[in-house]
Specification:
about 500 residues, alpha+beta, Nucleotidyltransferase, domain 5, about 20% strand
Amino acid sequence: MILVVNLGLKSVRCIAFTFDGEVLAHASQPIHTQVSNEFVEQDPVVWDQLMMRVVREAVDSLGSAAAGIEYLTVTTSASCLVALGANGQAVRNSILVSDTRSVEQAEILGALPAFAPVFESTWLKPSPDLMIPKMMWLAQNEPETVAATETFLGAGEYLVWRLTGERVIDPSSALKFHYMLDEGAYSEPLMSALDIDPGLFPEVLPMGSDLGPITTYQADLLGIPRTCKVILSTYDALAAVTGTGAFDVGDAVDVSGTVTSFRVVTDVAVHDPQGRIYVSPYSDGLQLVGGSNNLGGGMVEWLRQLFFADSPDPYHEIEVEGAGESPCPGGLIFLPYLLGERAPIWNPDCRGVFFGLNRAHRRPEMVRAVLESIGFSVRDIAEVLASFSVGIDSLTVSGGLARIEIANQIKSDILGLPVQRLSNFETTSIGAALIALSGAGVIENPRDGFDSFCDVDRVYEPDLINHEIYDEYFALYREVYESLVPAFAHRRSLLERLQPFGVEELVLTENL
């Protein structure tokens, strides 16, 4: 049996799988997030407490079968910076991936001569979602935090540390620190230019590495056998690619929890000088290309809070209202940039906009426009990939948003592709389990184990008439964004000058 701890942006889960993919136990807890215009933070101490709670709950529900737990692995959201002190405690809250406070630092990083060869190695442009700009912001604004930090980690590495005492990271997660995969090292000239001690980073180990048994203290606290080994997997977006069965060229994956992660398996060598997309190594010499937006399923949570707060069944109402409207009803479109945007536009200044709103529009039309905006944001990434001749044969969707039928159909219509939904929405946990079991030698490789973990539940075929309509409106969607870029920058300057940022606590539930 294997336990998978999955820390997302809204909740932490623990799932117990047999080696044949049967789910024996499942537990989850919501997480509180502190949000302002730019600042998005969570408390790592709370992560640890919630991880302990969900693991213990899952173990308790297993009863005597818990004695069969042989492995544990952790997968989390990427690029959530944790400053770990010498006492093993987090020095401050984690700065999350969607936090955009380090815009200025990202620009400074990109202008450094020492960064140019790093970019040519990683093809990652400097942006606030990545780790180095966050570290630079801390150095400038909270030097006492950096002085008290012994190691900078991501969320997954922090939880692995709590379980094992090991400060390690997989190569794909290390890429978020601008680790150069080809060289197998961080850039010494860049670290020197930034006055960053390379010793602040965790040790890089291959995915599937055996980190040894969980600490005796944690094992006894959780009721897990002391022989249970912790296996290193990777962050959620990449784990979910494996967990959706994307193994062949042309397989595309859309995993929509709070954010949407879109990746395509390809044999094309993609080097984007504009740094609009991520490129990660995959298996058998293939690559994963694509990116993540800042809000996918989180858009539906926003709809729920905005329009359906008093509804006993808000997601059903969103489904019904969204399905009852035609494409871009009355010429209405929505820009889904409530927290700025990552791939492919990388603009932390942009914000949400309803365009074409008129007096006849009601809540259902606005719901439809918001659901369509999620599909448009995915197509935005797909268009960049198409410019590099990256083909897509079909798209597999998973995550909480995949439960909403009309959202899947809209994506199929916008992309003009068949969209298949899997029977198990927990593809991130499935992928992490397959990676770990492969690393442990239980299965030969993740592909061999996939079919016993999951299968296709439904296929959505594109409505080609709607696809033609969406072709036209996607061009308008891009035009509206481009025309507003100067206005978004103007808004930011006004906020900085006239309205100091305050932090308010939002409770983001795990419903999606």
